[in-house]
Each structure stands twice: as structure tokens, then as C-alpha cells.
Amino acid sequence: xxxILGIDLGTSSLKAMLLDEETGVLDVRxxxxxVDIPHPGYAQQNPRVWWEALKEVxxxxxxxxPEAFSRVAAVGYSGQMHGLVLAGEDGSPLCPAIIWMDxxxxxxxxxxxxxxxxxxxxRQLCNRVSSGFAFPSLLWVKExxxxxxxxxxxxxxxxxxxxxxxxxxxxxxxxxxxxTGMFDTARRDxxxxxxxxxxxxxxxxxxxxxxxxxxxTISSWCAGETGLREGIPVIYGSGxxxxxxxxxxxxxxxxxxxxxxxxxxISAFSRKPxxxxxxxxxxxxxxxxxxxxxxxxxxxxxxxxGWLKNRLFREExxxxxxxxxxxxxxxxxxxxxxxxxxxxxxxxxxPRARGMFFGLTLGQERGxxxxxxxxGVTYSLRDCLEVLKENGVDGEEILASGGGASSRxxxxxxxxxxxxxxRACRVKEQACLGSCILAGYGTGILPxxxxxxxxxxxxxxEVFFPEEKNREIYGEGYRKYRELYQxxxxxxx
Length: 493
Fold this sequence. Notes:
Elements: E1 3-9, E2 13-20, E3 24-32, E4 44-45, H1 47-64, H2 66-70, E5 72-79, E6 85-87, E7 97-98, H3 106-115, H4 118-125, H5 134-144, H6 146-151, E8 154-156, H7 158-167, E9 172-173, H8 174-178, E10 183-184, E11 189-190, H9 192-197, E12 208-209, E13 214-217, H10 220-226, E14 233-235, E15 238-239, H11 240-247, E16 256-260, E17 264-270, E18 282-285, E19 292-298, H12 302-312, H13 318-328, E20 336-338, E21 356-358, H14 366-390, E22 398-401, H15 408-418, E23 422-424, H16 430-442, H17 449-456, H18 471-492
Parallel strand pairs: 1-5, 5-15, 9-12, 16-22, 22-23
Antiparallel strand pairs: 1-2, 2-3, 4-7, 6-8, 10-11, 13-14, 16-17, 17-19, 18-19, 20-21
Helix pairs in contact: 3-5, 11-16, 12-14, 13-14, 14-15, 16-17
């Protein structure tokens, strides 16, 4: 029986999953790494760090599961979206990857907004261009680092660069390409007229394919580096958000996903490229051919809790965090948190938004800070949900994804604040699972995506329902949360 390898290139870690087509998930291995912030507003990573992380996790899987590793018959990918990897003629990175959290391109973003109206962005891209997208990042390189720009031969999204190292084939796929801000999302191709208007050479942009298509095979060099068998087919893969959608079994309309990873999203599956006229949400191509994903995004979700836990309180255990946050009770003793540590997208689309704690007193305990962060991040997801509902996109229940789905407390907070039943998938690494299902279908191991989801995207039996006793607390908390930004926006500027 075949084994599928799924690789998820995240912002804070790389994960690899072995999935047996008959028995399911065998193992997941993780290698963590950091984000380099050499100057305020910068956020970058060295692509070589990703490659070394990939080799390490594959080495662990090969050591622990030698027989299964030898049966790997397909490789799938998912990865962090929006980022920019510039490669030269020999394929080597010319500079650190500029990732989605980056804010250095503010002047370029302003130039884009001056030259393109909201209507033009909607018509061409289905999205507002944001800082951290590859488009303004590439313009920043062109203006500030012309020596890199003139030597560039290919623009890669992060996981596409790792796939290039595995196969030697340059290419792009529709999900990540649509997240760059340089893609005609409705037509599923590069926005060639826009690229020409901005002086971006056609040679930089590789041919775009659908996520399930085979991009190449494991090269002899990659086989020597990783122990994978030469010739294994590798699919193009997907940006992480649609991969999580598939890992959760959401490949039809009517369900919502709340993802709390480093960033966070409320997302929905759509058969039409619907977009918000005010461009407060994102509409990107889905990994399912002929479909799109519509979502609101918050930039500092799990990252907010990690920042508080690691930097401020020097706490090692998330178990302790959850225990103390639970003891704090709903409303966190009146403490409110705005999670705008890296600016914010939905609904404010403001890279200059800033985070804060509001309501501090001498009686505040540590657990109330932890609880306030969990609640503040979930309020930001409520903002996303409200915008989706304005555009006719909603669902009866929410499937929780990402690290936030590992906390029973945070699952209940999501149910209470989002006011919908919340469930989680039994397999917690949904992006990895989604990449495996895509690879299985793309290489013929699985007969359909539907069959892959039926077999492997199994939901937990436990359902977290909104608790009526908390409705008033969180209703008032959300009202204050929204007003707090409105009253301080001018100061943030």
C-alpha cells in the first residue's frame, strides 16, 4: 500500500506527515525556527533554514518508519502564503525571504493605492493589496535593492521554492499565486497587464498550474539529500489556508473554518470568486479546481499568545497558560486586548494598527492576561465573521483549526464569542493532512478529494456549544473591543 508524504512550511515551524492510504496518519514530525527581524517592521527568513528543517524532519521519519518511508509514492505541499523568495539564474536565493508579516514596503504600498483605485483592485485582483504581499515586497526590492532585482530570474512563494529544490522544476500554483497581489484571481492567471504597468519582467513569473497537478519528481540530488526515492511525483500543492480547508473536509459550501495559527482566519469555500466591495477580506483561488476561498484574516493570533507566554512571562508550558486562563473566567477580569502587534487586516486593513491591553488594575493576575489574549484574538475573528456575513457568506457551524484547536478552553471561547457550535478535526495538523489528500488525488492514489476527506478528515465527537451564561459578558466585551480601536485609531497613526 502507498504512503503519502505531506509537507507544511509554516511561519514558525516545518511539519511533515506520513499518511498510509489504508491505515491513516502514521506520524508527524516538526522542526521549529524563528522569524528574523533585523529592523523594525522587517520580517524575513532564510530559505536555507527551511531546507535544513525539511531534511531534519525527513531524517526523523526515515529513522522511525524505515519501511513506510520506503513506500512513499507521492509528495504534497502546503505553506505560508504571500511571501517573496527571489532566486537567481542558478536557483539560489538572492536575499532573505520577505514573509507575510513584513511591513517594510509601506511607501510602495502607498504608491500602489495612489495608482490603483479600490474598484480596479477588486476587478483585477479580487483583493486589496496589503503589506507583506509579494507585490509591494517586490517593488521594495526593485527600488531599494536594485542589485538583487536585476539578478532575479524567478519569483517564488515560500513552499514553491522548497518544491523547486526537491524537483529542479520552477513553477507556481493558483492558490499561492493569487495571494501575491499580482494575480487575476477570477481568471486564475498572472495579471500580465498589471505586471507590465509596474515594470515587472515577465521572466520572473513561472507558469501557473492547479494545486493537484504533478510539478515534477524527486531529483537525484534531492534523493541524496533526504533519502527519498528518486522519481517520486511531487504535486504543486497549495497555500496553507485552502490545504487546512481540505484537511478539515470542507470542500463544499456551507461550513466555516476558524484557524488560529501564527495568524488567524475565518474562511469559507465558494464556487464563485465573490469578494467584498470594500476589500476588507481576501478572495484567493482554492486548491479545489474551479473554486475559491473567501476569508477574513487577523495577523497576530497564536503569535500573540506565544509573545505573551515567551517574552513577557517566560512561561514554558501551554498547559499552565490554559489552566491559569481558565481560572481567570470569562471577561478576563475586565482586561481587553487588541491583537494588532503587526498591524491588522480584516476589517481595518491598517498596517499601522497597534496592539494594547486596556483595563489594567493593581489586582490583575497573570491568568487574566492569558485569557484576555485568547478572547482578544477571538474578537478579531468575530470581526472577520461579521464582514463575511455582510457579503452573504455564513455557516451553521465552525470547524476549529491550527494550534488554537488544541486548547479546549480556546474552543469554548470561540463558541461563545462567535456564537456558533465549534468542532475540531481529530488530526490536528490539518494543513499537512490536506497536502496529503491533494497529493493522493493528484497522483491517482485516491480516487477523489471527496473520498480522501471521507477517509481521513474525521471530526471529534465533542461539540462546543455557546454558553448562554457568557452571552452578555462577551457581547459587551466585543462592543468595547470594537470601540477601543475606533477611539485610538488616530493615535495609532
